[in-house]
Specification:
395 residues; Glutaredoxin; 3 domains; 4-stranded mixed beta sheet; 21 helices; globular
């Protein structure tokens, strides 16, 4: 074969291979929202938008695997005008404000006018993703339809649940709460305890002070009978988290301590344990080590004695920020118990440091040596243990 012919064959193979690869990928138009809407009108297809962030590993995985799956690509390219947008760049702010995006990746589906038809979020395998996407093409499963059905008959529990279940796939529970309250306004006390009402409360109620949740608190056994005690308790824990967690992030100590008594009124071991952990977190994020020490000293034994990780974390904070002798003895006791639950190199080092801080150099040396021997026998790094031994004057 002549050189020119060989070159032509090679070009053909490379070109054909590139075409095949392109056909096996979901085609994302990045020309911008308005341009994609115009394409949607022209091609008479709904729009699919992938909303992602460059740092999101779930987004990266789905781009590399799911959207390059030939079955997924074929279905998406055939049925949708597909676009993608990094939420932290370009038109990302528009999507964040318009659709209230809080999670990555988020998948938006809307019609040619921009009306939201469906949305969901999270990492999916190809088959599960396709099963969810197929709902978009069924008009009776789209958000506008299920919302209209519910608001035409807001006393219908099945229609309410269908709407909330669809909405929940891409929205925070706080966005579901007003719709759930609309339904419960039609329900008398005599109607409250039922399986459908429990499911609406479990999925759609996020206001701890609302009538439906307070009714659950007063009738826990009755709701446990139509669901299960475990599900009722799980709801209690979730609603306390939804109430308090937002105030721990800033932290907003004023509003946290305003809402805390409402959560504490539930009086369950699990909810009290959650409140204890949030109390610690608020104190930690406020650099209020006096408060942190008081909370831990009073309640760690009651709430986290079975949690090695939490005990060690408190011990670490005591080593850095606490100097009072009795509190340091508590930290040693907690970390010792943590080691009994799950013995680690880090735990042995922490015990050595805590003993050193209390001037018990004999115990400090013993645990530093134990840490060195442990990691050394496994062939792991012992540098920190060796440095600690030198500080302690080991020969």
């Amino acid at each position: 074969m002549k050189l020119r012919q060989k070159f032509s064959v090679l070009v053909f193979i490379l070109t054909y291979g590139a075409l095949l690869q392109a056909q096996n990928e979901t085609h994302f138009d990045q020309s911008g929202y308005q341009s994609i809407l115009q394409r949607s009108k022209k091609e008479h297809k709904p729009v699919f938008y992938l909303i992602y962030a460059d740092w999101c590993p779930h987004c990266t995985k789905m781009k590399a695997e799911v959207f390059k799956d030939s079955t997924v690509a074929s279905f998406m390219n055939k049925n949708f005008v597909c676009g993608s947008q990094d939420l932290e760049k370009g038109e990302g702010e528009f999507f964040k404000n318009k659709y209230g995006i809080r999670a990555f990746p988020t998948f938006l589906f809307f019609d040619e006018s921009g009306a939201l038809l469906y949305n969901f979020n999270g990492e999916y395998q190809s088959a599960a993703f396709l099963n969810e996407v197929k709902n978009v093409l069924d008009p009776e499963k789209q958000l506008p339809y299920v919302e209209k059905q519910f608001y035409a008959d807001p006393s219908n529990g099945n229609k309410c649940l269908a709407f909330l279940t669809t909405l929940k796939k891409g929205a925070e529970r706080t966005m579901l709460n007003p719709h759930a309250q609309k339904y419960f306004a039609t329900q008398s006390d005599a109607q409250m305890v039922s399986e459908i009402n429990w499911r609406i409360i479990a999925n759609g109620v996020s206001d701890i002070e609302s009538r439906p949740f307070q009714y659950v608190l007063q009738h826990q056994k009755e709701f446990a009978a139509v669901s299960s005690p475990k599900r009722v308790q799980k709801k209690m824990v979730n609603i306390v988290s939804e109430l308090l967690e937002p105030y721990t992030i800033a932290p907003d100590t004023i509003n946290y301590f305003k809402k805390r008594p409402v959560a504490q009124a539930i009086h369950l071991q699990k909810t009290d344990s959650i409140i204890f952990r949030y109390d610690l977190l608020v104190a930690l994020r406020s650099d209020n080590w006096k408060s942190y020490k008081k909370i831990a000293n009073e309640s760690a034994d009651k709430f986290i004695l079975g949690d090695a990780k939490a005990l060690q974390e408190i011990g670490q904070n005591y080593w850095v920020y606490v100097n009072e002798p009795q509190s340091l003895k508590n930290a040693i006791r907690w970390v010792t118990h943590a080691q009994e639950l799950n013995e680690t190199y880090e735990g042995e080092l922490l015990l050595s440091k805590l003993y050193k801080k209390t001037n018990d150099l004999k115990s400090a040396l013993a645990f530093a040596q134990k840490a060195k021997d442990r990691n050394g026998s496994l062939g792991f790094n012992t540098k920190e243990a060796e440095e600690l031994l030198l500080q302690l004057g080991a020969k």
